[in-house]
Amino acid sequence: MPNLDFYAVDDDWSVVLEAVFDLGLFRVFQSNSEPGQDLPEFHAPTEIPNTFRGRLLSLFAIGSGPEPIVRRADSRPGGRPDTFQYHCEGWGLIQLHHGSPTGPDVLPSSHTNHNSEKRAVSWSAVNPEFGDPAEWDWAAVTSASGKLNRAIRRLAVSKIGSRPVLPHAARFIADADLRYQYGVGIHATPPFGMVRE
Q: Would you say which domain of life the source belongs to (predicted)?
């Protein structure tokens, strides 16, 4: 399966990033640049900033396909220099996103994901700028993604449903008494309409 949802907080994220680089399979890019800045490629976990955009990464499995596409997007053409940003795109890129706590009572899940060949082919007419999906070695993309997901699973100390829970996230969940998994995370309060135990 290309997708893995898991729970991680800040110290766990550092260990996940180390696992990404230790695998030696990926070039690591920020998914979206800071406004008005170039799109960075990272060569070590310590280079990745502890900012929102630094928690949204695009992984290119080396040798799996064409170079990632760096596309400039202008929010207001002709505006200030900081009104544009760059996006890292490509059919076979693997996304790695860290779901940081949004407060003391909810922890969004982190996740990995990537396109399947079937999905890329079905969307290729909508996004022709991404090139031909046939240029990608989909077996290589899936293999690299699977190795990443297995590395993350090995870091877990427990699971909630099908989601691995990394050590610091387990402590955060216990300390905050997060018990209700719905939407994109785990919460201290039940969803609307559900009676709390």
A: Bacteria
